[in-house]
Design a protein that fits this description.
The protein is α+β, with helices and mostly antiparallel strands. It folds into 2 domains: 38 residues; 158 residues, Rieske [2Fe-2S] iron-sulphur domain (Rieske Iron-sulfur Protein). The protein has 3 helices and 11 strands. The radius of gyration is 28 Å and the shape is elongated. The termini are far apart.
């Protein structure tokens, strides 16, 4: 007795098995490929928006993150710092920030969306050094004088900026520190590199 083989059924099963195995292989290769489409830390540093939780920054404290390969400072200003800023206007080269180094929504005396949160690109506008954060209490140890109310000091060539990033008169730095595009999402999340108009 001979066994008759149904060739059409065999072809169907072979094709079905090939499709299943091929589909599984394609999915296995697609998953890592799709995952590479998410922005990496390097891509974020190169220009993608950076999300920064700010709820843990204490008053008077500064945090530094990287955006577009530059340091971005986030400072939570105290009430005293905010109150001191108007008294410095006559010592500053551009107190009203008439030269455009900030988005339109930060073109105010505090150069910020929220009074207490300052966001600046931490690069001196002279030759690109990174100034240091010098609170009022450290003025004597840094040789900045008794009238120093706190701010940023560039150790490379001596430029001084207040706690709004505004440059003092007679400094090598020609303009105020830049304010990057940014926005808030809720009370405690800062998005750097994106504003209400979208990605910068």
């Amino acid at each position: 007795m001979t066994n008759s083989v149904d060739n059409s059924k065999r072809r169907f099963l072979t094709t079905a098995a090939t499709v299943v195995v091929g589909g599984a292989g394609a999915a296995t290769m697609a998953i890592p490929f799709v995952m590479t489409m998410a922005p990496s830390a390097r891509a974020q540093a190169a220009g993608a928006p950076v999300e920064v939780p700010i709820d843990k920054i204490a008053p008077g404290q500064q945090m530094i993150v990287e955006w577009r390969k530059k340091p971005v400072w986030i400072l939570r200003r105290t009430e005293e710092i905010i109150a001191d800023l108007p008294s410095l206007d006559n010592k500053l080269a551009d107190p009203n920030s008439d030269m455009m180094q900030q988005p339109e929504y930060c073109k105010n005396e505090l150069r910020a969306i929220r009074d207490e949160i300052l966001v600046l690109v931490g690069v001196c506008t002279h030759l690109g050094c990174s100034p240091t954060h010098v609170p009022k209490v450290e003025a004597a140890s840094k040789g900045l004088g008794d009238d120093w109310k706190g701010g940023f000091f560039c150790p490379c060539h001596g430029s001084k900026f207040d706690f709004a990033g505004r440059v003092y008169k007679g400094m090598p730095a020609p303009t105020n520190l830049a304010v990057p595009p940014y926005r808030f999402e809720g009370d405690n999340l800062l998005i750097i590199g994106e504003d209400t108009q979208g990605v910068a």
